[in-house]
Amino acid sequence: MKAIRRFTVRPVLPEPLRPLSDLARNLRWSWHAETRDLFQSVDPECWAASGNDPVRLLGSVSPARLAELAEDSRFLRRLTAVAGDLDDYVGGDRWYQDQPDELPAAIAYFSPEFGITAALPQYSGGLGILAGDHLKAASDLGVPLIGVGLLYRHGYFRQTLSRDGWQQEHYPVLDPNELPLALLKEPDGTPAQVLLALPGGRSLHARIWLAQVGRVPLLMLDSDVEENDLGERGVTDRLYGGGSEHRLLQEMLLGIGGVRAVRTYCRLSGHPAPEVFHTNEGHAGFLGLERIAELCAEGLDFDSALEAVRAGTVFTTHTPVPAGIDRFDRELVAHHFGPAAELPTIEVERILQLGMETYPGGEPNLFNMAVMGLRLGQRANGVSLLHGNVSREMFSGLWPGFDPDEVPITSVTNGVHAPTWVAPEVFRLGARQIGGRRTEDAMTVGGSDRWDSVGNIPDQDIWELRRVLREQLVMEVRQRLRTSWRQRGAGTAELGWIDGVLDPDVLTIGFARRVPSYKRLTLMLRDRDRLMDLLLHPERPVQIVVAGKAHPADDGGKRLIQELVRFADDPRVRHRIVFLPDYGMAMAQKLYPGCDIWLNNPLRPLEACGTSGMKAALNGCLNLSVLDGWWDEWFQPDFGWAIPTADGTGTDPDHRDAIEAAALYDLLEQRITPRFYERGPDGLPDRWIEMVRQILTLLGPKVLAGRMVREYVERLYTPAALAHRAMTPDAARELAGWKARVRSAWPGVTVDHVETSAATSTAVLGSTLSLRVRVGLGDLGPDDVEVQAVSGRVDPEDRIADASTVPLKPVSGPDAEGRWVYEGPLSLDRTGPYGYTVRILPAHRLLASSAELGLVAVPSEGAAEGAGVLMR
Question: For the DUF3417 domain, which residue ranges apply (predicted)?
Fold first, then answer.
């Protein structure tokens, strides 16, 4: 019989056990081993059955067992110690509190998904896991972050396979009362809510759930409330589900509702108001509109409010392809704003101007969330050095007249939260070497360039650790594979072969990620005979564990999964290659440590960063990857292999796959498997062990989320906070007025004449030339501009590369024609073909970049006299 109503019955903990409730409600348990060990000791069987979720555990343990523990003095001492440790962690000073006073009082961090723990399934892939690691690292460092997201009642889908290997999606309903969440309430006990106005006089209500991530509060908005009609209740039903209007409403709730939720939380909790707002990808971009509306309500005009909002906003882009950005039809956006809908005090046309693709190559009828993010954020970044380059090229149309390398988008390379992803066995090995506290500090705060203490760990210990982790993975794979085959309809009698799947002494390769086509899940199948030879080699076999989900609407991705599954089902190789459905955090935490090689073969440069290989590396797993994302930045042959790419513009995609697959097989056959199976005089694979040692020593400190968050604090959050403080209402009005005046006057800004002291087309290294430039500034003055000499090596088309700039100074003017003369030196500090030009840029103390307005004036064809290319 089916129940007509469902509710949660909570246990009443005996008084001595009350701290267990606080420990369960703070998600620090998800990365704190002592807390997890404590919960496991409550009832090991219930702990396993709960999926290692303390909230579910406490809801299932028997009253008799709780009464027994309440009398157990040893357990109570452990409970007191762990609870005290959490109090110290939450309330004590950490890295951030030891920094200068200029740091932000608080930062609001918005993301459409957060991967904190498998017990809170609110993530689909890398973006969410990165956001979760960002919050955890901020907590470890003491950074006063407030996370903001949505609570999806179905989360992302659960994945199973049909008998013929086709992906099937399931959407279990999540009850917030069974999750590690608390409802944010007003002083009178009623649930706190935010409200959005919808077209046609309708409203969208949302409650605010609070997840405590160590020191960091995470606010999650939930539209499944009684005040909403059925359609509005479903706004937060599924992560990345529904059509355009559904997604637009989700993003309005995340951005606009999220700011309102932050204001409500700060009012109720006393948390400092954020000085900086960080939008993780464009989904939350509407937060800037809500903040503009707030300032307009306080008396600022739109343009001044825009400048004030931009000063304190950081925008991070995560996609290297335009197709990965949310774009909405102009009319759909216009329908949801204005007098009869949300933000009625702001002209709809002003809102549309922020997101329209009004640049060469753009689609002028589409509203682009990333474009709005860049226009609303004074500071922006990609997530690896290579992705920063790709982003500057991709968005260069927003800064016409500037070379891509001058586009004001920097990069902060992603990192991963080591306490979440490092296996306990790896942590214990480090703790034996340098102590538990130092190991914890090294993995959270970071700060060192190398982990040299790894060099003192004996080879035997490293190799034994690797085998233990591989053996654990083998057991995990067999259990998951058996579950998967039962879901596919197999009977127990058919599954005896699973006991022989994988071998703890065989070289193990892992490949797990989302399954869009560019990640090339099936590149390994390109030459099946060659792959079979690798899998079944009599002396040097390999085994491969594969996992991943395709988007529910991506039939192409599902076909790739089916192709892989059908190959793995072949009785000849099924003991050597497996596909595990329902890839998520719980699986990943076993998979990364147990692999010897982490494989990544995307189409370069379409992987913005790719952090799975970082998590594997922290466990001593070597990377085998295309030079893309973070691997392009930090690859060294000391600790991994680079798959050569055939990424020339003229290369046929099929031919490219063939070339790169052949390179992958060559590496495995000729370099990787021989090194793994080669034994030194002591019977150990000493050259392999040395690579494991090097990846931990050299790469470990780089890939930490602690390093990443410290970079955000130092390079983006603190400058944004200082700009926010400088942007008083009067300063905002001044800057907005100045920008309007400069834009209006810019057509009258010209470089009229350039001359130099160079008499010939060659010059001597180290010499200095004199530049003299006559410019027209129209209605502007020297305080409004900077006149620059730009010089550097030139290519055959006379394009300047690796340019350096030198400001020139006014020496006279204005003359009768309103012209000014600027002069300055030009040092010839490089040999070879060398050239220069002159340009004029807007200049103001409150600009974060001289390219901010996208305005530049350069010489016309006839303006130079003996200028230009100095040496060929």
Answer: 13-120
Non-local CB neighbours of 391 within 8 Å, separated by 6+ positions: 317, 320, 380, 382, 407, 409, 411
Residues 467 and 577 in one domain: yes
Within this chain, do residues 609 and 522 fall inside the same structural domain, yes or no?
yes
Domain match, 62 and 28 both: yes
Residues 190 and 223 grouped into a single domain = yes
- Indicate if 151 and 204 belong to the same structural domain: yes
Under 8 Å between Cβ of 600 and 548? no
- Say whether pLDDT at 809 is over 50: yes
Instruction: Check: CB of residue 546 under 8 Å from CB of residue 511.
Output: yes
Banded model confidence at residue 761, pLDDT cuts 50, 70, 90: low
Say which residue, 2 or 518, is predicted with more confidence: 518
- The C-alpha atoms of residue 600 and residue 448 are separated, in whole angstroms, by 27
Distance CA 705, CA 794 (A): 39
The mean-pLDDT minimum among 5-14, 67-76, 688-697, 811-820 falls in 5-14
479 and 378 together in one domain: no
Mean pLDDT of 345-355: 96
Same domain, 175 and 317: yes
Q: Does 841 map to a domain?
A: yes
- How far is the C-alpha of 808 from the C-alpha of 775, rounded, in Å? 11
- Give the chain's domain count: 4
Q: Strand, helix or coil at 195? A: strand
DSSP state of 704: B
Q: Contact 454/620 with Cβ under 8 angstroms?
A: no
Q: pLDDT tens digit string along 609-643?
A: 999 999 999 999 999 999 999 999 999 999 999 99
Q: What are phi and psi of 622, to 5 degrees?
A: -85, 150
Q: What is the CATH number of the domain that holds 600?
A: 3.40.50.2000
- Give the pLDDT score at 795: 85
Q: Are 352 and 369 in contact (CB under 8 A)?
A: no
Instruction: Compute, in degrees rounded to 10, the torsion defined by CA atoms 685, 691, 693, 695.
Output: -150
Residue 866 has pLDDT above 80, yes or no: no
Q: Are 63 and 17 contacting, i.e. CB atoms less than 8 angstroms apart?
A: no
pTM greater than 0.85 (yes/no): yes
Beta pairing class for 366-368 and 327-329 = antiparallel
Residues 136 and 181: their CA atoms lie apart, in Å, by: 16
For residues 659 and 798, membership in a common domain is answered with no
Picking from 701, 734, 765, the residue at the C-terminal end of a domain is 701
Report the C-alpha dihedral over residues 815, 816, 817, 819, rounded to 10 degrees.
Answer: 10
For residue 611, what are the domain limits? 449-701
Measured from the Cβ of residue 640, the count of other Cβ atoms closer than 10 Å reads 23
**Residue owning tokens 């002494």:** 505
Express each pLDDT in 125-142 by its tens digit. Answer: 889 999 999 999 999 999
Q: Kindly state the average pLDDT of the residues 548-575.
A: 96
In a domain, 727, yes or no: no
The residues near 534 (Cβ < 8 Å, ≥ 6 apart) are 541, 542, 665, 668, 669, 673
